[in-house]
Design goal:
By secondary structure, this protein is an all-beta fold. The protein contains no helices and eleven strands.
Length: 114
């Protein structure tokens, strides 16, 4: 299974971006899907996660600004990012899990200018 992420780019502070990630291949008993990010010099951190039942959780730093959603029929996960801040600048990675393994996307760069 390969994950393909898209939607990153350069945006001014206060702007919005929508990240998308689609799995190519078969996922068996899809479990959690999530977005992580990694800024230069920092560890990779969880941004948002959506469980198989649709329950969501977010990093405190993005609560109220970001929204994660999933479309199981399309094997896809999305991240709507609003009111972006310069500190949101990072490479964003999508993540999916099934009963056999966990999978990472290649990363998409998000840069927020002040």
């Amino acid at each position: 299974v390969q994950l393909q992420a898209s939607g990153g780019g350069l945006v001014q502070a206060g702007g919005s971006l929508r990240l998308s990630c689609t799995a190519a291949g078969q996922l068996f008993n899809r479990d959690a899907m999530a977005w992580y990010r990694q800024a230069p010099g920092n560890q990779r951190e969880l941004v948002a996660r959506v469980s198989s039942s649709g329950a969501t959780n977010y990093a405190d730093s993005v609560k109220g600004r970001f929204a994660i959603s999933r479309d199981n029929a399309k094997n896809s996960v999305y991240l709507q990012m609003n009111s972006l801040k310069p500190e949101d600048t990072a490479v964003y990675y999508c993540y999916m899990q099934d009963i056999f393994d966990s999978y990472w996307g290649q990363g998409t760069q998000v840069t927020v200018s002040s």
